[in-house]
């Protein structure tokens, strides 16, 4: 039955918009071809006018297909997928996959066919067996490199297929991501990235191992791709692994295949990252360590300077008490706090280091005067006078400071330090908590005693504050106001009883409140003091004084506002009660905002007002701002609208307050005509009446307190008058405290949170966090910027960086931990957003700073242990920092001139001597080469082995001198042999990793070698396998330069630790030395024998000599011979021996 024209037209339009070949067939008794779109004709290379009119999907298997479709129709099924083989118009064989949908309509059936060309896929499958067979010739190579792999498998990169299962410890890794063999490699990569790879490594893993990138690299001549990352293993534990893909063409179609192997590098990586953590900083305080401090200061002093400089040596008094009584962990916290305070005092304008234990050292460059240094020393004494308590016992520390000036007291750090240490000793002798300058007389400088009173914060308050003993009533402390009103001088109140000083009594007061006091809250009462002739609101409380409970009293003078005569207004009781309520409301809350809001609510209720408020005035600009506000329920708030009020625009109000007058307006309509601007100001906040009083600071109008629309007590100004002073004083006191707290937890320069805040943050848990990201940042080259361009420029960079960080993470916690180190904690941000924001910030930082910023960042929604995340971020940051150091010209290694001088003397005295250990060729039964090893013959100590002095040289970054010394020694030996007519044999010498990385390394070799007329190919440089952690492009460059000079390269310690197989393809080496650790287990370890066999065979195929190192037994020799290794080095034949003995035995 023909298709309904309307329906056919509709279906045709749909087919034309599909992106695949499509045909429509109808069936009643026979199949009838109705329509096909252009892609269908193109698939078979036909045109519409070619008479192409098959009534079924075009196929060579027509009858088989027809029977299958007929069966489907009879069963009334709705879908069929079939694969068929056909020839197109050009007689090319093609494979198609057809998806048929059946629509049943009365007696007719509509069949919609979607057809896909799968010819290429079929070709791939057909060639797989051929490719696999051809690939088998690489078997030995694959066995060798995959012998210690977690996983190895093959991929067809051109066709994007994984062609075998991925098995780790019997676990099929494909099934972990719901895939099977012959799946898409890129799909596996995507799924594995999402499910198993660490969040910080996802982008790197996916991009570096993606098939598109593999193809491009192969086109560029790169045959091996390597990637390190963190991933889950078969036991669902995450650790560091590496994936290496060897690329090669396989099969008749020349398809690009990859042999993939994954190795466990977790232990290696952790070791590497731990090494990267080492830096110039003292590990505890993050200040400069002694070596770094000396290097920087000496570098500065070696240059002629126009201005003087100063050296301060600080010793913490009584610090031993902290460690002994509060523990070393707490002591470490105190040292960090001290370091933080010193950093803040100098704000990056001094070089600060930790000299040792509890000693700190500061070098101030370009001082304007000695008074400036003394002023800084006084601040240090003040800031480092600290108190700590435990179990009601209080411990005090202070500081003593020795000071010297350059060039007056010395021109080198060594000279200055000796004099500074002497000055410090004098400061200690003077009674501690002192500073003393070395070359100043007692007449010129009076040593400063810096005693910080425990009440320093409240000493300047206008209330009387005193502390007294509960047992003896003796005064322990009396603030300035108390001393003024009682006439007692500072320091003279010791042994005076509180009732003697404040009440004029000879015995304790009968109304003493001691029995009513506790440690948790104030006891508030009102008292008329006849001795002082004053009226007070009194607040009493117990506090701890050196671990003992004592009485603290605060007395607020209300004499000017209270009239204690019998003539009282009717509302006086209500006023007094309200005042007491206000005073209590001011003292109890923790925050100033809460305290003031509580008081305003009490005042508002007293007047039954709609609104109570405080307006504070900027004394410089005469601009007012409504800082606090209380509004009755259901009444609107106006505080946000009442900011930056120009008092010059409302002169009626301003002039009243300037003349110390209160302002009471019972009806604002009354001032409408005469003062229209003031009237508009009041009406804008719906104030129809008001009561306001001004307050002052140092005699100057500074703000006002008021209520709008009072409905009772409108003419009673007594309450506002009485409470005015207390409110203002509480604001001042709390803001001073808040400023102190702010400074304690914020960085002064950047305004960011500081290390104290960070430490506090770590102590809290936030259960509302569902994901957490951590960004650690370190400014590259900040010290050099400060040194070369001044700290002002460095500070400017810090503020720019802080501003950029705030712009990308405005609502997150950003901490400045030290001079150049920042950390950002990002909560509840999706991973993609976190990465995008971090990358954008990194780019912005790079473009806004001279050297950029090294970042390390991590993110998690599973493991949100903040310490783990910080550690991970720090490791990544240090890796990037190392990359910066490798690329930057500003990185300087530590050095010690005295130690270097001693080392060079040893070279000159020939105290470093060459020992040779022979390498035997078993087949030739003779010595074919030797390794040069070093020993130290130090007077009075005999022969010293390398493990005793090499670590010291490495620590002091002096191995380069020994490396080049030994290189020249073997050049001398070879030249002497040549002159004596002896047969030359190759001699190898060890080169350290740091020496290899020197930019001028090969030029240094060339300069030394050019002094000797010997063939270069008799010199072999032994490079330890640990260079595997260096970027492979660097390794390739270094090895090429060495080979270009004609020297041989030996890969030492192979299999000892890193087992980095990528070195085999990266490093152009001539000899591979199997490490002793493998030889030691060879006899009883079948697996080791198998691995070693493959390595030896691989060396033969790539024409590399294989040397077994550390051979000690005949059984080892026999096995090595069986395995094919013929060059032996070890104690079995000879230990390292002196040069003369080697020549006598092996080289006549």
From TrEMBL:
It comes from the Bacteria. Transmembrane segments: none annotated. One of its GO terms (molecular function) is cyclic-guanylate-specific phosphodiesterase activity. InterPro entries: Cyclic-di-GMP_PDE-like, EAL_dom, EAL_sf, GAF-like_dom_sf, GGDEF_dom, Nucleotide_cyclase, PAS-like_dom_sf, Rev_trsase/Diguanyl_cyclase. Pfam families: EAL, GGDEF. Residues 893-1148 form the EAL domain. Residues 307-440, 770-893 form the GGDEF domain. PROSITE patterns: EAL (PS50883), GGDEF (PS50887). NCBIfam families: GGDEF (TIGR00254). This is EAL domain-containing protein. It comes from Thomasclavelia ramosa.
